[in-house]
Amino acid sequence: MQKYYLAVDIGASSGRHMLGYISNDKMELKEVYRFANDFVNQDGHMCWDVKKLFKEIINGIKKCKELGMIPSYMGIDTWGVDYVLLDENDNILGNSYAYRDSRTYGMDEKVYETISKEELYEHTGIQKQIFNTIYQLMAVKEQTPQDMERAKSMLMIPDYFHFLLTGVKKMEYTNATTGQLVNAKTNDWDYELIEKLGYKKDLFIPLSMAGEIVGDFTQEIQNEVGFNCKVILPATHDTASAVLAVPADSDNVVYISSGTWSLMGTELKEANCSTESMSANFANEGGYEHRFRYLKNIMGLWMIQSVKKEFTHDISFAELCEKASQENIQSVVDCNDEIFLAPESMIQAVKEYCLRNGQDIPDSEGEIAAVIYNSLAKCYGETIKLMEKILGQSYDTIHVVGGGSNAEYLNELTAKYTKKEVLAGPSEATAIGNLMVQMLANGEFKNLKEARNIVKQSFEIKRYTI
């Protein structure tokens, strides 16, 4: 009988259920369900509708049964840093805040009253992002202290969904590291830091590694979906899963996990918590088997996704790429400027940046897209130069994985600005990485190297040169 594995991959704009299986020494994928995701406004805050998301997770699991492709194993990955606080009855306290919510503004200074920015980086190796869990929890402590007081446990978003499926609470390592509260040397919660900041130590349950069994579906879930399934922890942070699927023969490669965010980096055996690395705002996020994802967060396709929503008619990303490639506008913006994090109008934010910096103001759809794509590629070029300098390393090739690997014009620009060969694909890297961990845990592959080799043989990789 064919053995099926299910990856539930939920991003900031959509989620999907991908069944994976091995056939003729290749990994095969089948998308069985897709659903929308977006922020909701609750009490004036940007939040996630976790009830709706869990309902969609169940809907997709049911779809597998309808198709007669029942998975034996499954796992869920999402974006990082966001969490839920649970009371003594495991009900969510307060809102399920989204990382783009503005409540964390100023919370960095509150944290630095206890620990300096330099010492914090030395402890955790994580780049400063105002939405990191460390600042979100400070917002709880300062703004809704009653929630911190009543909280009995904390789970990152994918861990919470695994708990709803199994009744078992586990905190997976890769996602936990994104919050800036895990020690880069011990690979465990930095309990000394947690206590100094006044966060309740008991909230932070021991970390579990990707590949560990969470448990079977509860009887209630089995009754609802019509079958049992074993839940295995994937690398629950979507970027950690995507990096697993980089189809490289060597560990010494550069990747761009290109989606709502662009995460550009390499894999290291040990974290680089140097002052130089901190100044350049690189992160040492946790990876599979305690590798470190040494990377920089770049605003990514969020910008193009946002402007696409503002256009008055429906246009595909491929059409936007094509229009952008025909424009000659030279203007570029700093993709990492905070004005692009959550503007009311991304188009207006791009125009205002260009005006403020004395550049030509984009007008047409093609020009706006061209400015964004060129700005992203320019940022990639600057990032790889900086990374090579800090690490004393030279790279020839960049692997682009995730949805952005389909953006041909952006891939061409990436080769141009970085002066490196670009290998694009697979586009479903996050789901593939999720499935790889489940399959590794079940003995389908001997090790990560063999799994990556299967990915290389199974999916199309496009090559772009200077």
Summarize the helices and strands and which ones pair or pack.
Elements (H helix, E strand, L loop, with lengths): L4 E6 L3 E10 L2 E11 L3 E3 L2 E3 L2 H18 L5 E5 L5 E4 L20 H6 L4 H8 L8 H11 L1 H6 L2 E4 H10 L4 E2 H5 L13 H6 L10 E2 L4 E4 L2 H7 L4 E3 L5 H7 L9 E5 L3 E7 L6 H5 L3 E4 L5 E7 L3 H9 L6 H9 L20 H11 L8 H27 L5 E5 L6 H11 L2 E4 L4 H13 L6 H11 L3 E3 L2
Parallel strand pairs: 1-6, 6-12, 9-10, 13-17, 17-18
Antiparallel strand pairs: 1-2, 2-3, 4-5, 7-8, 11-12, 13-14, 14-16, 15-16, 18-19
Describe what this molecule looks like in 3D.
By secondary structure, the protein is α/β, with parallel strands linked by helices. The protein folds into 2 domains: 228 residues, Nucleotidyltransferase, domain 5 (2-Layer Sandwich); 178 residues, Nucleotidyltransferase, domain 5. Helices cover 39% and strands 20% of the residues. It contains 18 helices and 19 strands. It has a 7-stranded mixed sheet, with helices on both faces. It is globular and about 60 Å long. The protein starts with a strand and ends with a strand.
Going by helix content, strand content and strand pairing, the class is: alpha/beta
In what range is the share of β-strand residues? 15-25%
* Low-confidence residue ranges: none
- How are the strands of the largest sheet arranged? 15-16-14-13-17-18-19
**Main sheet record:** 7 strands, mixed
Q: Helix count, per DSSP? A: 18
Radius of gyration, taken over Cα atoms and rounded to an integer in Å: 21 Å
Mean of pLDDT: 95
So what's the CATH class of the largest domain? Alpha Beta
C-alpha end-to-end distance: 47 Å
